[in-house]
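Hey, can you fold this?
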Amino acid sequence: MAPFMSDSQTSHPPAPPANPLFLTTRWSVVLRAGRTDTTRAQTALAELCQTYWYPLYAYARRRGFSPEDAEDATQGFFEKLLRLGSLAGVEQAKGRFRAFLLASMKHFLADERDHASAQKRDRARTISLDARDAEERYRFEPVETATPEQLFERRWALTLLDTVMQRLRAEYEDSGQAALFAAARFAITGDKSAAPYTRLAAELGITGEAVRVAVHRLRRRYRQVLREEIAHTVADKSEIADELNSLRRILSA
């Protein structure tokens, strides 16, 4: 799992996204386009929910829900959140999608308990949620060492990192550099001793200098993609650095 990298690890950290680009990120689209462009906002919100469904499933499981009830609650929550005409409430939200999603899930579960007494009903499969895979992943969560909220935040951070790595892998594969990515991805951890450059050069059939350049570019692109993914979950570009620091703290706890 790739960790967060501090800007001090390179002499030229990437600049924050320019404002016109930032306005196209998903959570900002939801907050800004909720009334004027419902279709666009719904699409952006659905993409966010599809990426970050597992932290909510893990939250429900840690709250004591059975696997079946956790799946039911997660699907029910997304069904309600993504229902046409429901964006008016989302539009009033402020801050980060991470905080909004957890607060909304808590409210949803309380509402379900009060009005339906946890009665199950058939749920539309709003989100492509692999329940078997989710439960397999949950088996490896720390037992009784984190609150539901702490588990949600940790899984959020790890999901973010997985998303970043998937994007990077796809970029390198699309450009015909899958072998280079597989060999050089160790550099994202900052552990240069994991695979000496000379050995990598021999394996890839390139020079040691070419390996160093490739590693530098990979690390730089990793930081860029990380910031882009974080930007998708905050309301304003000024929040990117704070969210990055918050997620570092979550992972180091």
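Oh, and this one too while you're at it.
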Amino acid sequence: MRRRTLVGLAPALWIGTPASMLALAQGYPNRPIRYIVPVVAGGGSDLVGRTVTERWSRLLGQPIVVDNQGGGGGVIACQNTAKAPPDGYTLMQGYVATHGTSPATRKLPYDPIADFTPIGMIGATPNVLVVNPSVPANTLQEFVAYVRKNPGKLNYGSAGPGSLTHLTMELFKQQIDGFLVHIPYRGIAPAFTDLIGGQTQAMFPGLAAALPHIRAGRVRPLAVTGTVRHPLVKELPTLIEAGFPGFDAQQWYGIVGPAGIAAPIVKQLNTTLAEVLRAPDMREKLSVEAIEPMPQTPEQFSQYMRADIARWSAIARERNIHLDN
């Protein structure tokens, strides 16, 4: 399913910052840029793309055409991006599924590293460990103790096999040496329905999806992933500070293009993207999806993707999670 939208056509005489003027002076871009979002229009990922490209198009002085290409868990969008000319006029919003969990759990018709040029990170939102209020645990430490005392008696839900919600809980189980039964659902909404109803007892959803249920008292939050506490739930400790080293897994979004984009174009795109993300109001705009902006250089973003794939590949091997079987 595809949908195209013209975003932010800037006035020809728009006056911007030095970074944006540099991009214009070098002659790129001189026509519209296609921005592929690997999901159908209307969801959180789509909102992220439209929020960023609306501002980015002004800095670049060209319209950005948002092209929604849902289907295949992002495979269709990734293939189309990888096959596009590496001229900087086709970009894609990669995220944790296309360049993290999917490469770790299934065979794909694209190489998540070799077939793409990293442009930069947009930002990330943590996953949050939540439990049904009937679970006798008010802290992460109490929950760990309860799981260890009751191996196999608790169920946890996920948005589906191989999803971030699935792999994050498997990482947690590995680190605590505990056992909960996995109950996969077709999406996060039905998983929440059964968690709230008590059919499952725990889950590791993204913070944006969990917040309404946390605020309504339907689930009890215990901790978040990431390296620092999230401003929307400052009272919740990170798993790292609670004694789980390296537990910084998050739902992240970034921008890639086909392999082989010229370094000067990559630099222009990265510099202007960082300018967008550092705007004072961008954090507020992205907070709708609980996303914290994370500007990175192309090199840093490349290393981030490689590390994420390595993390989830290790968990998939250790827990025997192979979706091609």
